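Re: the 98-residue chain
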Amino acid sequence: MKYRLLTPALDEISDAAEFYDEQVPGLGADFIDELDAAITLILQFPEAWGRISKGYRHCNLRRFPYTVIYSIESAEAVLIVSVFHQSRAPFSWKRNLR
């Protein structure tokens, strides 16, 4: 299975990694590693996580307070819509769909 990222999701990932790296050198890389592990699980078991809206699911990272919002586009593809901080408004990820 493959995945693709919306541009706003890629921006969110970059911003988060940069923020963490400014806090502690190397922490941004840890964030990316955990995100990669979560995406790998999503690709292996795309229906394992709960729905948050029609057609969209969420997977929380364990170490960092971030959630991956995604949709299953086909049997071979997942679209990652947002990787957002959990303290943001619950449906702020929908702005990325515009």
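Strands lie at 2-5, 51-53, 56-60, 66-74, 77-85.
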